[in-house]
């Protein structure tokens, strides 16, 4: 799995194998030593596949809570949902993932969140 991020020093787009996240390396662009960001460091950084790594899931739940984003939903069976659908070029990143119960996530399927929310007439949790 590849990990796409911005170098914290030169701000250039970089990539690395996911297993290197958090390790210290030299940037090929600016030639300075820096830590490869983790999901907690850069919420817009992303992996190149639909499924997310455990560290990304933990960060999403840490910053966005562990409750479904749909108002009045009290389900405890949680997963993550791509706000902009993966099949519509949505990225697997902390900023594009949100907590959602498995039932609502299944109902949403591969639809972009805003479209699904409007069509389903559900309300967003405040």
Q: Which secondary structure elements does this structure contain, and how are they paired or packed?
A:
Blueprint: E1 2-6, E2 13-17, E3 24-26, E4 33-35, E5 46-47, H1 54-64, E6 78-82, E7 92-93, E8 97-101, H2 102-108, H3 113-120
Antiparallel strand pairs: 1-2, 1-5, 3-4, 5-7, 6-8
Domain HNH nuclease: 56-106
Protein name: HNH nuclease domain-containing protein
Assess the beta-strand content as a share of residues.
Answer: 15-25%
Number of domains: 1
Order of helices and strands: EEEEEHEEEHH
Uncertain segments are: none
Number of strands: 8
The major sheet is characterized as: 4 strands, antiparallel
Quaternary state, please? single chain
Strand order within the widest beta sheet: 2-1-5-7
- Helix and strand content put the structural class at alpha+beta
Report the average pLDDT across residues: 96
